[in-house]
Amino acid sequence: MSLSEEIKQEVDKRRTFAIIAHPDAGKTTLTEKLLLFGGAIRLAGSVKARKANRHATSDWMEIEKQRGISVTSSVMQFDYAGHRVNILDTPGHQDFSEDTYRTLTAADSAVMLIDVAKGVEAQTIKLFQVCRQRGIPIFTFINKLDREGKGPFDLMEELEQVLGIRSVPMNWPIGSGRELCGVYDRMKGQVELFQGKDHTTIEVKKVEDYNDPIIREMAGDYLTDQLISDLELLDVAGDPFDYEKVRAGELTPIFFGSAVNNFGVQTFLDNFLQLAPKPGAKVSESGPVDPTTDKFSGYVFKIQANMNPAHRDRIAFLRICSGRFERGMSVKHVRNGKTIKLSQPQQFLAQDRDIVDVAYPGDIIGLFDPGIFRIGDSLSQGKDIVYNELPTFSPEIFAKVSIKNALKQKQYQKGIDQLTEEGTIQVFYSASFNDTILGVVGQLQFEVFQYRMQAEYGVDVQLHPMTFQFARWIVDDNIDPSKFRINSTLVKDKKDNYVALFENEYAMRTAMEKNPTTKFLEVAP
Ligand code: GDP
Fold first, then answer.
1. What CA dihedral angle connects 93, 99, 102 and 107, to 10 degrees?
2. Which segments does the entry list as coiled coil (predicted)?
């Protein structure tokens, strides 16, 4: 087999996705179940271990521990039904940060997990919006169906109202909460019945359609009547399944199930793997790059610092975009023009770091980083390729930073410059007061910043929280800074772009209305 045929085969098999959810929706549980289908039982424990650590107080040792553990489960890989599946972990809770968003750029699709009782929640909205901007397909799993919750039609309505996405149910619950007795699979034309206190699947039967008498025998009259009237309504008023729209992220297929009871998980996985895209062409400065070309390329989307305090080593996470990776290969570090040897690549399975010998587009590898990588760096073999998959995301939490000991000014500046370049924090400068303002999307980023300033640069910094909630990059050829004084604070980012900071949505809307020709961008231009 030629190299390009081999790469094509491997790309066809791969599905790389992230699960997006609000904390407690059941992401850990679902991940665990998915891994079990792949036979990767050993992993289940490690996913749990991470969870157990979540509520720990966040002094540095704890951050370290949390981060250390989250690293081991940053990427989970398993084989199932002829596919090689990569699940990317998207940190939530206290470790929600810009990394969470960046990780989504490395995924080819997303699974949006929703608690049937709670519906669409805050963190889901944020993560959804990032997926939306990237135009990746989004699959929805409505979880905890064994509990009382919102009705399926109400949830579809909520997806449309809150997220602005139409949905198409792939299956439909028969009964709900304690009365739940199964689902009707609209695609396969079958009924999956389950019973008992743990609701596990006990029977699967093929049916002609939803009027098939088999359903009545299995579910009884009352629930069957309800099911038929729901499905009739869906046939008339619901969106038809449209593959192109799913691929474009405009229509989300919905699956109903219960992760903890392992109900509906396998059908979800089967359907998902059929519908989810394989790794596609990634955008570079010189145009899209075909993943099946035989030249290796990829980009760094996350850097994990200080995993091992004794060695201060870092791991740079690289998403492979094209070609074949081989351990020990030499590639060009495009930003600095140097050729480097990739000799210590790691994959992150369970508590062990396995050494990877070969990997293909869609896979994520961890590279030992002696301090040479920055977030967004591209590596390539053959001609230079620069990927621009990584936008700068709009921060949501802000603080003014100051130094405790003025004599350390030089070290302080160096630290800020380097940590900004690494993507630990974003920095802004106010024009009028000479203030340095830091922006992050998760509180943990501040803690990491403070710790690293102390540990690596010997500088104690103070952070003074600010009340801004939104940042928008201002694009306007004839900007009049005075216009932004009333509703916002105008600052500059490190590339000298104007950024307006707002305390609330109302102030932001007002500024937008008053400046109709100005562009307010959510990501840096
Ligand atoms: P995460 O924060 O999203 O990772 O959520 P977890 O997977 O830790 O789940 C949060 C809680 O919901 C745990 O107590 C789970 O046992 C529970 N849970 C998860 N899936 C289900 C489900 O299908 N039904 C019910 N009743 N509880 C569930």
1. -60
2. none
Whether residue 23 has its Cβ less than 6 Å from ligand 1: yes
> How far is the C-alpha of 255 from the C-alpha of 268, rounded, in Å?
6
Length of the chain: 525
Question: Does ligand 1 have an atom closer than 6 angstroms to the CB of 198?
Answer: no
pLDDT score of 195:
66
Our answer on whether the CB atom of 149 is closer than 6 Å to any ligand 1 atom is: no
Residue whose CA is at the smallest distance from ligand 1 atom 9 = 26
Tell me phi and psi for residue 383, to 5 degrees.
-70, 155
Phi-psi region of 249 (alpha: psi -120 to 50; beta: other; left: phi over 0): left
The token pair at 289 is 């790059």
Residue nearest to atom 17 of ligand 1 (CA): 26
| Residue 334 tokens, joined | 């495009």
Cα separation of 363 and 382, whole Å? 20
Confidence of residue 525 (pLDDT cuts 50, 70, 90): confident
Residue 174 φ then ψ, to 5° = -105, 105
Give exposure, 260-293, as e/b (b: 16+ Cβ within 10 Å): bbbbbbbbbbbbbbebbbbbbebebeeeebbbbb
Q: Taking each helix axis from N to C terminus, what angle separates 27-37 and 265-275, rounded to the nearest 10 degrees? A: 80
Under 8 Å between Cβ of 52 and 64: no
Per-residue b/e over 217-233, b at no fewer than 16 CB within 10 Å?
Answer: ebbeeebbebbbebbee
Query: Which contiguous run of DSSP H or E holds residue 400?
Result: strand 397-403
User: To the nearest whole number, what is the mean pLDDT of the chain?
Assistant: 85
How far is 347 from 344, CA to CA, in rounded Å?
10
Best CA proximity match to 142, nearest among 154, 132, 134: 154
> 260: Cβ below 6 Å to ligand 1?
yes
Cβ of 450 closer than 6 Å to ligand 1, yes or no, is no
Nearest CA to ligand 1 atom 2: 24
State the pLDDT confidence band at 309, using cuts at 50, 70 and 90. Answer: low
Q: List pLDDT tens digits, range 211-237.
A: 888 888 878 899 999 999 999 999 999
Q: Which residues are annotated as a binding site for GTP?
A: 89-93, 143-146
Q: Which residue has the tokens 């003025």?
A: 406
Report the residue among 20, 22, 28, 29 best suited for mutation to probe ligand 1: largest number of ligand atoms under 8 A from its CB: 29
Rounded CA gap, 117 and 25, in Å?
A: 10
Over 60: is that where the pLDDT of 73 sits? no
In this structure, are residues 32 and 44 in contact, taking their beta carbons and an 8 Å threshold? yes
**CA–centroid distance, residue 132 to ligand 1 (Å):** 26
- Annotated binding-site members: 89-93, 143-146
Nearest Cα to Cα of residue 277 among 241, 244, 311, 301: 244
